[in-house]
Amino acid sequence: MQTITIDWDHPTDPRPSREREHVQDYVTTGGLDGHLWHGVPTLLLTTFDRVTGRTSRTPLIYVEDAGRHVVLAAHWGAAEHPAWYRHLTAHPEVRLQVGAAVFRATARTACPAEREVYWPAMTALWPLFDDYQAAASPREIPLVIITP
């Protein structure tokens, strides 16, 4: 069995965009600038791409519950799942930055009962998630639970 060495400390950031600026501001200020984005909490999720062997970092809106972080693989309502979601389904070990805290965690897709609980919490925080789900149909936007 081959051991994979993962470089969690040097992830690839999004292509030049507002999203990349958000990530860079978040990282350089230890979350002081970037944790709250448009008034909602965000985290940085780093996933491992088993094809390229590189890690990449994505900012996501989250809800926290009992030490777990819940995010949606909305992809702005696109017909396909975002790359970060495909990465974590293949390799569930991830790294999170929440404010100044950086830690390893495990990610998994929520079961239907968990989805019923957390979907309303996510849409209460960011109502556009309902619009993204309508645009993505018939794709169901995955809800992801991340546990330290």
Summed up:
The chain is an alpha+beta fold.
Helix content: 25-40%
| Separation, N- and C-terminal Cα atoms | 26 Å
* H/E topology pattern: HEEEEEHEEHHE
> Count of helices?
4
Report the average pLDDT across residues.
95
Q: By helix and strand content, what is the structural category?
A: alpha+beta
User: What ranges have pLDDT less than 50 throughout 5 or more consecutive residues?
Assistant: none
Work out the number of β strands: 8
Q: How is the main sheet built?
A: 8 strands, antiparallel
Radius of gyration: 15 Å
Instruction: Determine the strand fraction and express it as a percent band.
Output: 25-35%
Model description:
This protein has 148 residues and is of the alpha+beta class. Helices cover 28% and strands 31% of the residues. The protein is built from four helices and eight strands; from the N terminus they run αβββββαββααβ. It has helices spanning 18-28, 83-90, 112-125, 128-136, and strands spanning 36-37, 40-48, 55-61, 63-65, 68-72, 93-98, 101-109, 143-147. Strands 1, 2, 3, 4, 5, 6, 7 and 8 form an eight-stranded antiparallel beta sheet that branches. Strand 1 (36-37) and strand 2 form a beta hairpin. The longest helix has 14 residues, at 112-125. The mean pLDDT is 95.
